[in-house]
């Protein structure tokens, strides 16, 4: 990212659009976001309309470095300060109790607020200019609801602007900041009920649970029924259009042969370069969780563009460092077993 030249006139124009209540898509180090002025409920409503997302799903508010958190949150526990010190700017979102003055449009009506300070230089420049560094940009990932998150400006364009009949979803301003480095969405930690429920991991990501636990000196819990809702935690999410099946590595050859027998074309995503002769297309993924995350969404989009009946992904190791990747794969492969069973029935 160091050789990225900032197009300041474009960033300034984008900040003006946000101030006028319009939408702007912008790069972050995780994925691209579809942004609006977090304190303008009409502008935030435009995000929901463009994405086709239900209005009771909260969106993350992006803040510039050094932002006054007390403007956004009612209570900022000491663990939040420690995590901010350790990981901001960066791919970590904190859920806190929302300040009463902040419109509940950003929280889908919940009493919480999700905040994060992105490290991408374009996002930072935009946040520093927007409302002279005193505003927040509400931004979910810049994709249609339930689909794969975008990691390039081109992906955002394809999501919203490639269908001539979809005038509601048009995104006129897309800032280009190259390919997102992290590639999967931020880790989300809920501190809004820390006194009663402890810190809760709502979504795994590049910053791992153990890195967070080391900083706050406490174990992260898993969400219970009362935890704030996280749309990325719906069972089916991050999904390509083509059905996706997640299989163990040792099952791959067998599954591919069976698919071939019923005349189905499969695209394969696997970590080993070992070729799968029964596959119609194959893509080799990184052996490291960071490298895999970086390429995952672009790979799913590329496989979606190939004319195949199914995308078969070999499951990465079930180790903690792979939690972020495995979480996204499991949601993309929602109903994996059913998909395979139906396809293999002749
Ligand atoms: O990396 C990311 O987090 C990207 C980039 C653009 O920053 N954003 C992102 O946004 O992934 P989105 O909307 O696709 O996912 C944000 C998640 C949602 O699952 C949402 O439910 C949760 O954060 N969230 C946001 N505000 C919340 C709140 N007040 N309470 C509970 N969950 C919240
Ligand atoms: Mg999303």
Detailed description of the structure:
The protein has 346 residues and is α/β, with parallel strands linked by helices. The chain has 11 helices and 13 strands. Strands 1, 2, 3, 4, 5, 6, 7, 8 and 9 form a 9-stranded mixed β-sheet that branches. A 4-stranded parallel β-sheet has the order 10-13-11-12, with helices on both faces. Helix 1 crosses helix 4. It is globular and about 60 Å long. The structure holds threonylcarbamoyladenylate and magnesium ion. The site of threonylcarbamoyladenylate (TXA) has 28 residues, from strand 5 and strand 6.
Strand coverage percent: 15-25%
- Which word captures the global form? globular
Largest sheet: 9 strands, mixed
| Rg calculated over all Cα atoms | 20 Å
Average of the residue pLDDT scores? 93
- Distance between termini? 50 Å
What bound compounds does this protein have?
threonylcarbamoyladenylate, magnesium ion
Are there runs of 5+ residues with pLDDT below 50, and where?
Answer: none
Structural class: alpha/beta
What is the ordering of alpha helices and beta strands? HEEHEEHEEHEHEHEHEHEEHEHH
Helix share, percent? 25-40%
The beta-strand count equals 13
Question: How many DSSP helices?
Answer: 11
What is this structure's SSE topology?
Elements: H1 8-19, E1 24-26, E2 33-37, H2 41-51, E3 60-62, E4 73-75, H3 78-87, E5 92-98, E6 112-116, H4 121-129, E7 137-138, H5 153-161, E8 187-190, H6 194-197, E9 200-203, H7 209-216, E10 244-247, H8 252-261, E11 266-270, E12 281-284, H9 289-305, E13 310-314, H10 323-332, H11 336-344
Parallel strand pairs: 3-6, 5-8, 10-13, 11-12, 11-13
Antiparallel strand pairs: 1-2, 2-7, 3-7, 4-5, 5-6, 8-9
Helix pairs in contact: 1-4
Bound molecules: threonylcarbamoyladenylate and magnesium ion.
The site of magnesium ion (MG) has 4 residues, from loops.
């Amino acid at each position: 990212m160091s050789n990225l030249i900032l197009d300041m006139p474009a960033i300034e124009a984008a900040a003006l659009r946000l101030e006028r209540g319009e939408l702007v898509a912008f790069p972050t180090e995780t994925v691209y976001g579809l942004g609006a002025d977090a304190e303008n409920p009409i502008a935030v409503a435009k995000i929901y309309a463009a994405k086709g997302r239900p209005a009771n799903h909260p969106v993350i508010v992006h803040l510039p470095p050094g932002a006054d958190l007390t403007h956004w949150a009612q209570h900022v526990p000491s663990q939040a300060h420690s995590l901010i010190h350790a990981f901001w700017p960066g791919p970590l979102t904190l859920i806190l109790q929302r300040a009463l003055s902040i419109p509940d449009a950003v929280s889908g009506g919940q009493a919480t607020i999700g905040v994060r300070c992105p490290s991408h230089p374009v996002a930072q420049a935009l946040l520093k200019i927007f409302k002279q560094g005193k505003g927040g940009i509400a931004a979910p990932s810049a994709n249609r609801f339930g689909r794969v998150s975008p990691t390039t400006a081109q992906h955002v364009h394809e999501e919203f602007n490639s269908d001539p009949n979809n005038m509601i979803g048009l995104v006129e301003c897309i800032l280009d900041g190259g390919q997102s480095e992290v590639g999967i969405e931020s880790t989300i930690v809920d501190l809004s009920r820390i006194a009663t429920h402890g810190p809760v991991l709502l979504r795994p990501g590049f910053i791992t649970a153990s890195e967070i636990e080391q900083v706050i000196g406490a174990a992260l819990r898993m969400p219970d029924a009362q935890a704030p809702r996280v749309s990325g935690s719906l069972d089916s999410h991050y999904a390509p259009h083509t059905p996706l099946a997640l299989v163990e590595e040792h099952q791959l050859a067998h599954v591919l042969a069976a698919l071939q027998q019923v005349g189905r074309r499969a695209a394969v995503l696997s970590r080993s370069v070992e070729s799968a002769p029964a596959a119609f297309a194959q893509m080799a993924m990184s052996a490291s969780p960071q490298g895999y995350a970086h390429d995952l969404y672009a790979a799913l989009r590329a496989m979606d563009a190939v004319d195949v009946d199914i995308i078969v992904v070999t499951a990465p190791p079930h180790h903690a460092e792979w939690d972020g990747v495995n979480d996204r794969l499991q949601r993309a492969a929602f109903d994996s077993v059913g998909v395979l069973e139906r396809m293999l029935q002749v």
